[in-house]
Structures are given as C-alpha cells and as structure tokens.
Predict the 3D structure of the following.
Amino acid sequence: MINECNLMVLGGGIGQVPLIQSAKNLGFRTIVVGSPGNYPGYKIADICLEFNFMEKVKIIEAVKKYKINGIVTQVDSAVEIAAEVAEEQGLPSIGLDVAKKFTNKKLMHEECEKLGVRVARWYSVRSLEEAYFKIRSFEYPFVVKPSDSSASKGVSIIENVTEVENALKNAFLNSDSNEIIIEEFIEGEEYVFESITNNNSTTILAVGKREYFNIKGKKIPSATIFYNYENDSVVKEASEICADYISGSGLLWGLSHSEFIINRGTNEIVFIETSARGGGASISSDLVPLYTGININELLVKMAVGQKVEIPKKNKTNKIVAYISFLMKPGIIKNDFNSTAIEMLSGVKKVYGVNFKKGDIVGEIDHKGSRYGPIVIEAKDMDDFEMIKSNVMKKVSFLHSFKNKVYQDAIWN
C-alpha cells in the first residue's frame, strides 16, 4: 500500500471532476494538467499545471518534480501520452502499444480481424486519390471517418456522389495522422458497453442504447439510455464479445467504452469502436455509478497508482438511467437562461452545459461537441423516463436568432 500518493490527471474538464474528487477523497494529492482556461477540474485540484498535456517533455518534468505515483485520464486524446509517459517512467501503465489499439481505428479494425470479431468491411487510405479508388467498391450509403479522431469529428455518412468530396476532405482535415477509414454502413441499433478491466479480466458494468439526432450525414447521439438487458440474449452475446475483445486486445486494467451495432432482423453483432477510458457525456462520471452503485472513478484512480482492487458486484435494478441532450441552429442567444428550473425537476439528477447569456454564439452543428447538456435522468421505467424528458423539454425555452429569424425551440431529435 502506498502511504502518500501523487496522482497526475490529464485534462481538467467537467468529465474529469469526479475522477479528481475521488482521488482527493482517498487522500491523494492531485496534479491536474491541461490547456490554460477556466476549467472546473482546476478549481478542485491541489496543483494545476496549465500547459498542453501533449507536451511530453513538460509532462515528464512534472512527473519527476512532483514525485508522481500514477497518471490517469478520461480524455481520448490523452490516453496515448498517459500510457507512454507512465510506461517510460516505471509507473502503472496500460502500455503504449495497447493504448494505440484503443485510440486508432485502423488498429482496432485489425485487432477485430485477429480476434474474430465482426467488423464492417473497411479500407484505410492516406490520400484523396486512394480514397476515390477504394470507394468504387462501396454502395451508398457508406461511412468515412478519421482513423484517430474522437467525438465524431470528421465522421460523415455519405448518401450520394455529390457528398463525397466534402466528406473526404473533412475526414482528412480531422486526422492528425493523415489517414482515414472508409467502411460500409451497417443498419441496426447502436449499443454502448461500459466496462472495467482488472488483471486483464473484463466486466461489463452497464449497457446503454443510443438515440440519434436526425441530422443528414451526421451521427450525433441525442441520448444514451441504460436499463436492464438481462433477458435480451443478443445483447448478452454482444457483452461477451465485447469483454473478450477488450481482454484479448491486451488491456490489463482500466475503464473502457465500446460501441456495437445490433441488427435486430438478423441478430448480427458488429463492432464499431472502443476506447480505453470511460464513456463521455457524463456516462462514466455519473450514469454508470448511478446505475450500478459502483464508484468506478475511485477504482480507476486506485489502479492508476498500482493499488490492488476488487470489483464489487453491481446492483440488480430495473430502473432507467440516461442522459439527454439537444442542439440549436447556429446563431446568437437573445436572452439569458440558466438551468435552475431543470435541476429542480423530479428525476433530474444533474445538468451540464445548459446556461446561456445574451450574446452567446451558437456554432454550426458538426459533431458531438455541438450538443448542449448532458442532462442526467433517473427514472423508474421507460414511461417515467419519457415523462421526465417531456418535462425537461418544456423547461428549455430561450430565444436565439439565425439568419435574421428568431427561434425558440431546441432540437431534441
């Protein structure tokens, strides 16, 4: 047992706050690293280092200066640097090679083929010329995505030839490695699998079903709904495939967020992608602990400093736990709005990102980061969930302008 722990957390955004707080509750000293800004994680950190966490030399200097015992993150872009520095400095690490398998979509697809996990037909390409050649073999619609982006940046569903050029250029623009994936479009329902791995043994903690905004060419989730799938044999099979894939990919410890498509007509289960961190949009910070009764953030920070942990049994429940979010047309907010009225509603547990001031700019709808929320809901059953969601929608009322027109309604689906 380590008597005094200095934990480095990469990223100070709202999703990191439960991680930082869990570490502090355990008596760890928290050193939070991230770009300069007014981020909530900085306010509770013991030490805040405001520089880009991708600057490896500075990270190593800080590891030595503050006698760091472990490095942890819930930020996709920081997974590799956390693993690399920890491995080089002799700290607990998932290993750089493993980290790459959970951040690079090309490597994920290759790992699926090695492990016998069904994945959409795909190609990776590094130029527009190569892309145009490969897409000849695909029927519309098909998908293009950067091999190394997150939050759906650069991802497009191409439905006809007129959309190809812009979609390919956008995918390359969002790829740091200048590599993109072209893959067949798979029909079906999308499910997310939230898991924890300890000593290379993976436990699926919660399964959620995704709902999407009806935005042409984009796949932006409007909600993720967690409930009991014990009697769903296909989801149970997908859970087993997911757990085997994560352990088979070499992950020794940590949280994972994985996405699969299930075609209910054929019961086909198709891998989409995975990440060596918990789900974003409040999934790992709020929804999984709320649904399972397990403080996964505490378990993660313990593993990050090399402490042994036991994974508790999750609560057996039939309740619904979900986040919902909304979009707005690009424009300018015309009146102030705060989330107090939403927070007071029965069934609403937390509200993030729903405070506006007159003059705030609403950007273009492009990826997951375009959403407002999440709003975390706990309900007795699906009917109760729909009622709570309806009550939330009624409370979200503000004006914003778009192309000389004034709008009041948010976009919920």
